[in-house]
Amino acid sequence: MHIYGRAISLANNGKVPACIVFGDSIVDSGNNDYINTIGKANFPPYGRDFDGGVATGRYCNGKIPSDLIAEDLGIKELVPPYLDPTLQINDLLTGVSFAAGAAGYDPQSSQIAEIYDLGARKIAVISAPPCGCLPSQRTLRGGFQVSNRGCCGTGNIEVSFLCTEYDKGTCEDASKYVFWDSFHPTEAAYRYVVRAIITKLPLD
User: Fold this and answer.
1) Fewer beta carbons within 10 angstroms: which end of the chain, N or C?
2) Which H or E run contains 94?
3) Residues 78-99, buried b or exposed e (16+ Cβ, 10 A)?
4) pLDDT of 162 strictly over 70
């Protein structure tokens, strides 16, 4: 797998066998549910647009980028958290997420060298830009109607334990919003970005 600007290209129409994920809350599919931290997203309204309306620990109203990439590449529908005690061997073979909210990711770390030494040969490093700083993130695009605040509560400060089902200002339709809380994009925004990555469409 090679990164060309904002797109993923598979050499010789190859198939990606697994999606192994490292990172922070953008791609944490629930690891923080199993560690002692206040940084969790395993309660409503998180997950309200997820299948069954379940808060899985994903910092979003639905699926996150790792889920969408794995789905679009035909690997699996969801990338489970590595710390999930119900994890099956097939999950390990097709991919898991080692990401944890608030952990961060250092592209200069030894993680890449370590997974290369373990046999990985197709490695993609995709990083999120400083979302609130880029003019492109502050303008209306992709059919979104609201880009200057999140859906949860006031949309200005609510994140993790501050974003709760008791916030009276939480929006009805998250698909109109770029951000779910004050930091994390909505599933609709993630789909827009992942589609551009997978299909090489420019982010117009």
Assistant:
1) C
2) helix 89-94
3) bbbbbbbeeeeeebeebbbbbb
4) yes
Closest CA to 81 of 15, 129, 35, 16: 35
d(CA 198, CA 3): 10
Pairing of β 177-179 and β 146-150:
parallel
Choose the catalytic residue: 25, 66, 97, 182: 25
Indicate the residue type of 38.
I
pLDDT digits (tens, 9 = 90+) for 54-113: 999 999 999 999 999 999 999 999 999 999 999 999 899 999 999 998 886 565 566 677
Q: Is 25 a catalytic residue?
A: yes
| pTM, to two decimals | 0.79
